[in-house]
Amino acid sequence: MNMKEQPTCGKGLAENSALPAHIGNVVAAMAENLDAHMQALDLTDKNSAAEYTAYENLVKELKQSALQLHLAARHMAGYRDLPMGSHIEREMIHPRVHEAFEKFLNQKRELLSLLQQTADRDQIILDMMGAHS
Q1: Are 35 and 55 in contact (CB under 8 A)?
Q2: Are 49 and 93 found together in one domain?
Q3: Are the CB atoms for 88 and 81 separated by under 8 Å?
Q4: Using one digit for the tens of pLDDT, what is the confidence trace for 2-12?
Q5: 8 and 20: one domain?
Q6: Angstrom distance (rounded) from CA 19 to CA 13
Q7: Is 23:97 a contact under the CB 8 Å cutoff?
Q8: How many domains does the chain have?
Q9: Which end of the chain has fewer surrounding CB within 10 Å, N or C?
Q10: Sign of the torsion formed by the C-alpha atoms of 97, 102, 107 and 108
Q11: Which helix (H) or strand (E) holds 102?
Q12: 7-65 residue pLDDT tens
């Protein structure tokens, strides 16, 4: 393995940049979906007006979150060539490092499960919407 192929923290950051980028895409699409839904609300109805206000706030917050995630992803990808710094081995094998990585992996697994469950549910809704158009 030559020096270019050796794994580095910078390469790890760059490889993991896909996660916040894709989550940002999902969050942005959620905002777009809520925004589209807002157009169907009858604002003469007080409940619809309250829903509109709630969605309006959420769309703003979700768009900001998506932008932050995309910015972080871009920064992570930009660190690909970050020179490898020296690491203190006893700190790298400390249980907190293992626990933090294990938590990260578990959270990704939970996210995968959540996405599968909600995608299945949302496909049913999409199919019903298609049947009515």
Answers
A1: yes
A2: no
A3: no
A4: 555 678 999 99
A5: yes
A6: 10
A7: no
A8: 2
A9: C
A10: positive
A11: helix 95-131
A12: 899 999 999 999 999 999 999 999 999 999 999 999 999 999 999 999 999 999 999 99
Q: Are residues 57 and 2 both part of a single domain?
A: yes
Are both 126 and 103 inside the same structural domain? Answer: yes
Tokens read off for 23: 């989550």
- DSSP character string of 38-99: HTT--TTSHHHHHHHHHHHHHHHHHHHHHHHHHHHHHHHHHTTTPPPPP--HHHHTSHHHHH
Contact 76, 21 (CB under 8 A): no
CA distance 17 to 78: 9
Do both 19 and 73 map to the same domain? yes
* 39 and 74 both lie in a single domain: yes
Alpha-carbon distance of 63 to 27, in angstroms, equals 7
At 28, list the tokens: 């942005």
Nearest to 62 by CA among 19, 21, 30: 30
Both 96 and 60 in one domain: the answer is no
Same domain, 44 and 67: yes
Structure tokens at 3: 């020096």
